[in-house]
UniProtKB/TrEMBL annotation:
<protein>
    <submittedName>
        <fullName>Nitroreductase</fullName>
    </submittedName>
</protein>
<dbReference type="Pfam" id="PF14512">
    <property type="entry name" value="TM1586_NiRdase"/>
</dbReference>
<feature type="domain" description="Putative nitroreductase TM1586">
    <location>
        <begin position="6"/>
        <end position="215"/>
    </location>
</feature>
<dbReference type="InterPro" id="IPR029478">
    <property type="entry name" value="TM1586_NiRdase"/>
</dbReference>
<dbReference type="GO" id="GO:0016491">
    <property type="term" value="F:oxidoreductase activity"/>
</dbReference>
<dbReference type="InterPro" id="IPR000415">
    <property type="entry name" value="Nitroreductase-like"/>
</dbReference>
Amino acid sequence: METVKMMELMRQRHSVRRFTDEPLNEEAVKVLQQEIDSCNRESGMNIQLITNEPEAFQANKPSYGQFKGCKNYLVIVGPKGKDIEAGYYGERIVLKAQELGINSCWVALTYKKGKAQGTEKHGEKRYLVVALGYGESNGDGHKLKSITDVSDFKDGDPEWYKSGIEAALLAPTAVNQQKFRFDRNGEKVALRVSGLGFYTKIDLGIVKYHFEIGSGKGQDVWKK
């Protein structure tokens, strides 16, 4: 999908925690599963889609935590030490869901881990889950830091660099902490965690995917 359309999906996508009873469209589930399969082949992750399962988010109760009516979710599973991949490929699937009209919310703690479905193979771990469904609303945008808060950007720097950072600022991060920092050296960019925070390596993966889309540079942009 072209960059302009992907950027629009990033702007449209907000965290949604209250869902209607409408089941996921069967064709949308097929397309989403195809994207999951593609991501798993490419990354070595074991991300799984669970549908029509009310226990993890206690969907049959009026509300659980901040959630209501969630019966569908992604289980982000993969080899240990793959936090960045968990975020990167999870967000790729999340934006495909957004394209299909499915709302979402990254969830680390506010679900019943013992009730959630999904399996882990030897050497794998469950990183977190992503709630999915048709929201009662499309959610609200999060407060954004400025470009200079999260990078060394200055006047005269390439437009692709600015566009990549703007896309990165649209990325969901744990408790909206935005604990990341970009530094550019010519055509290469370094991305690192900035300060202490929760799930910051997973956040880096999400941010990386956004930056690649916004900048149009792809994975070759990163400094080794």
